[in-house]
Amino acid sequence: MGFSLRKAQPEDGPFLAEMIMMAGRNHISRAILEYLLGGKPNDCMTFLQMLLITQTPHLFHHSCYMIAENSSGPVAVMGGYDPNTMGYQAFHAAIPEVSPILGWSATEQNLVKERTDKLVPCMPRINEGAWIIDRGATKPDVRRQGAAAFLLEGVVAEGKELGFGLAQTNIYIGNEPGIKLFEKNGFTVAEEKVDEFFERMIGAPGMVSLQKQI
Q1: Distance between CA atoms of 170 and 206, rounded to whole angstroms?
Q2: What pLDDT, in 10s, does the model give residues 56-96?
Q3: Within 13 Å, how many C-alpha atoms sit on residue 173's CB side?
Q4: Does residue 105 have a pLDDT over 90?
Q5: How far is 168 from 87, CA to CA, in rounded Å?
Q6: Residue 40 in 3-state DSSP?
Q7: Is 4-213 a domain of CATH 3.40.1080.10?
Q8: Which of the 8 DSSP states describes residue 127?
Q9: Under the phi-then-psi rule, with left for phi > 0, alpha for psi from -120 to 50, and beta for the rest, what region is 135?
Q10: By the 8 A CB rule, do 174 and 187 touch?
């Protein structure tokens, strides 16, 4: 089946939110974003759709994503970003744009940062100068048809065009299809990090970091 690639646009928000949550949950009890926001899934979906279109770009912003389409429309997404300019620090900077709409207090905003500060050290380290690939998901009825590999090739190419020499992704331990996808496309395991706090909060023992010179 043929696919085409394009960069995500603000109007893709509902589709992106659905797919990002699908990628985040995978085989685990709750997505990292659900933990960070401390809310129920429906609350997180509302918040995420707003995060996708903030003025401040960050790792959950629509501009990070590529979309694969077939004749029926969008079927898969995958993100790529520079962690130095669009990582968690930028994410925190964008939250004040959204939280007043939902009636969040300053205390509630600070809780998001506190949760982030607790969880990020539990994950594999980000390599210096790496282009981060994250949150890939494909609609269930289109899986195993090549959309994810096609997207991965496109996101890696984007990082290379931007001057990055290394691509990195962190995947939940136990997500064997995700790990195999990256390994088939030239990535190798650089680190496996197991953490008890991460497992209690997210439901996976930890994460596997894979990387590839680009």
Answers
A1: 10
A2: 999 999 999 999 999 999 999 999 999 999 999 999 999 99
A3: 18
A4: no
A5: 14
A6: coil
A7: no
A8: P
A9: left
A10: no
